[in-house]
Each structure stands twice: as structure tokens, then as C-alpha cells.
Amino acid sequence: xxxxxxxxxxxxxxxxxxxxxxxxxxxxxxxxxxxxxxxxxxxxxxxxxxxxxxxxxxxxxxxxxxxxxxxxxxxxxxxxxxxxxxxxxxxxxxxxxxxxxxxxxxxxxxxxxxxxxxxxxxxxxxxxxxxxxxxxxxxxxxxxxxxxxxxxxxxxxxxxxxxxxxxxxxxxxxxxxxxxxxxxxxxxxxxxxxxxxxxxxxxxxxxxxxxxxxxxxxxxxxxxxxxxxxxxxxxxxxxxxxxxxxxxxxxxxxxxxxxxxxxxxxxxxxxxxxxxxxxxxxxxxxxxxxxxxxxxxxxxxxxxxxxxxxxxxxxxxxxxxxxxxxxxxxxxxxxxxxxxxxxxxxxxxxxxxxxxxxxxxxxxxxxxxxxxxxxxxxxxxxxxxxxxxxxxxxxxxxxxxxxxxxxxxxxxxxxxxxxxxxxxxxxxxxxxxxxxxxxxxxxxx
Length: 445
What we know:
54% helix; Heat Shock Protein 90; alpha+beta
């Protein structure tokens, strides 16, 4: 009887191993397919597919995974290998769903005796319109080998479990029964941390748990779609703002000849225009161009000190202490938007951190480092890795006003001049945000 019960218990476990391995492989390559879909958006509109084809070939060489992109008429636009047959049954099913704007169903479990490749497809979308699809043909040999090893381990565990039951060990069985609820609990925590692509398995479980898992997956999908709509909104809003800004600038230029005060309005209009351009780049609707670097280098320390004059008054009005630390001169690209970057960092420090807030500019090898440090609660190690992601906000700060775009813009601006953003916990607590940009060698102090 114990042997029969053990065998009955092993069946759903074996199914879980095969399904879990398949889902893990599918989800890991889904992120790559999403990236290819994003990169294919502009080439599908412009027709310039040379760079897209190069990316596909490089990805194939690196991960041994063929990839190709088709347009809405299922014509192969770019591929890493020739001979793609879009009428193959597995590809046809995936493309039917993807080109209709739906996510294809997850592939079946990776049993060792199954052969063939896994198809992972994602739609290429612009403003809600499907332009085509990015498709990966993922090899499954390693996944099937992993499942085979898992099944062998399961067989060994089955023999041990029989002995354990015989001698009265019930606790492991109880844990197995509760595993679906533990999976759901873990997935809920992942969702709260911002991992909106988290899903739970619904195969081989009781009807009640299957319905609960389906409801959870539907909720996670709705949240993921809402985040996508937020990104599309930013792209649309930045696009719609360009025309009225241009018109306003023309009118104010005419007024500036009559009123010197209008010149200040021109400066604000130009700055607002730059903000709209950055939002557009951040949303992925524009391809950032190369920086010409024709202007003279900018002394980052001097630019920071000039901007801090206004911020000291703002902090003083709120009874907050702002400390100006070490200011080491260093030349950086003139295109770096120092005012906007410093505004975001000091605004975040005043809202989410705690005084005193210290600003410094130093050199570190070939980099000039602008640091803003507060003495608040800081961030955990997982949250530190997410700093700068679009629409991401720490769980401690989600009840506070904000969009989650400030640090994303800072990271985008730093990257535009070859720099980067680093978040770290300093000694003594709090949080340090460092904007590290390349030092211009021919700059003279």
C-alpha cells in the first residue's frame, strides 16, 4: 500500500519537474524575445534591417539559439539562419496568436522523449498596432537532460520516501501537500517587488488550487499590461508635446525682441523641450543619436556649485540641512544635463531620505563622480539593483507621490555621455547615488 501511495505521489512530482523546467526555459527566453521585439520596432517601420540582422546572428552565435523577425504579412525580415519555414505547424500556431496581439500559450512539458525546438514569440507593437513578431527557436536538449536527471533523482527520492513513511516520517509529505501554496506565496512576494512577469504553475494540482493559480496569473498579466500602457502613455505624451512647444518657442522668440523678460521664458521652453526629448528616449520611441562633443568641456564641480545655490534656499525653507562636500574640478561632456540630474537626486533625497544631505564631486581614475548622500533608511540589496529601472519604486515609498521615472531619466542622461549610475549603502547608513561620467583628458583645471 505504501508503495502504491508513493507511486501515486510521484506522478504529479514528475509532471512538476518537467513543467517547471519547461516554464523556466520559456520565461528566460521570453525576456530575450521581448528585447528583440523592442529592437525590431524601429527597423520594421524604417526598413533599415541591417543592424537587426547582425543582432540576430550575434545572438545565435552566443546562445546557439536561432532567431528571426517577421512582419505582419509573415515575411521574414531578419534571420540568423536561412531556411525558415513560417508554415511549419509549431511556427504557424505561435505566429497566429502573436500577430493577433496575444501572447502564445506556454509550451508543453519537456519530457526526455520529446524532440524538437521550443518556439518563443513576442509581438512587435507600436502605439497598440502589431507590426510583426520576433521568434526564437530554442534548443531543448539541455532542458530535457535536466528533466531526465530530475526524474532519476525523483526515483531515488521515491525509494527513500518509502522508507521514511515506513518509519513514521510524515512532515516531508505535509510539506509536499502545501507546496502549491508556498509557490503562490513566493510568487506574490515577487510581484510586490516589481517582477510582474512572475507566474505560478497550475498543472497537476487540485481544481481549487488550479483556479486560484489561474486567477493569480490573470492578475499578474493585467498588472504587466498596465505597466506596458504606462510606457506607451509616456511615449505618446512626449510626442504630442513637441508641436505646442515648438509653436510656443516661435511666439516667445518674437516677444523677446520687445521684452527682455521673455528671454528667460525662452530658456525655460528650451529646458522643457530637452525634458520631453529625454522622456521620448526613455520610452523607447526615439533612437538616441551620437553625441557630437563639439562644445567645450563642462566643469562638473562648478556647474554643481552654481545649481546648489538655489537648492540651499529650498532646503533651508523646509528646515533641511544641505552640505556641500568636496568639489574637485573635472571636465565632462558639455551635453550632460547637470541641472536636471541634480534636481532629481536632491528632490528624491528630500522626499525619501533624511537630512543631512551631502553633495560632492570627486575624481576616481578616468571618471568624475557626482555623489548625493542622505541619512535615511536606505535600500536593501535587491532594491539597489533595481535603482534606475523605469516605473520602479521601492516598496517603502510606493504610498508617496511620484512616477518612478526620475532616476530612470538620470541613468539615461548619464549613459548618453558614456556614464553610469551607481547606488550603494554608505558606512553609517543611508543611501548614496553616484553619477559617474568619463573625465575629459584635455580639460584644464
